[in-house]
Design brief:
The protein is an alpha/beta fold and 202 residues long. It has a single domain, classed as Glutaredoxin (3-Layer(aba) Sandwich). Helices cover 39% and strands 16% of the residues. It has 6 helices and 7 strands. It has a 7-stranded mixed beta sheet with strand order 2-1-5-4-3-6-7. Helix 1 packs antiparallel against helix 3. The chain is globular and about 40 Å long. The relative contact order is 0.22.
Amino acid sequence: MFERVRAYLKAHGLTTAIIAAAILGLAGVLYVISASLVSSAPGPLDSYARGTMSGFATVSEPPAQPLVGLVTGDGEEITLADRRGKLVLVNFWATWCAPCVVEMPALDALQAELGSDDFEVIAISMDRTMEEARRFYDENGINALGLYHDPALRAAIAAGSRGLPTTILYDRHGGEIGRLSGEAEWDSEDAIALIEAALERY
């Protein structure tokens, strides 16, 4: 899976040097952003924010869940309110974001393993067109994730996403549980344990 992602990056003209610079630059920016947002108060899932999920944290005053329109792969317009009643892990990403495309197979695997009436991974593309995201899915075997597009970037801005990738976990009522800025191994044992704990608590 990751070999296909690397091949995709090469095919789209991204050299190793550019990718490395993008990752390092984004990591530095996200570190500053996350440090300014993280609450000093302990959160209910703090004990699960370990290993590959060590960057997962609550924020002091989280923005409300964005309710702007998203376009699905079928052309339907929805909002995140349509997913109330289940936990949703919202990931803001784009095909031009190297860390984003690296973690997409892991998000796809997480959805394949835990996706249900109680939980869904919603990966929202920031690309100019839906077709760019669709092509990436097709070329990299992304099968479990649905296609969602935020053509005006309104959802990402409203959610307080200040860099890509940003991943936010919302409870069944649309309240933010916590977020992780930057790339993560979302199919790891740590990630699955965190999501399962959230399902029990929320």
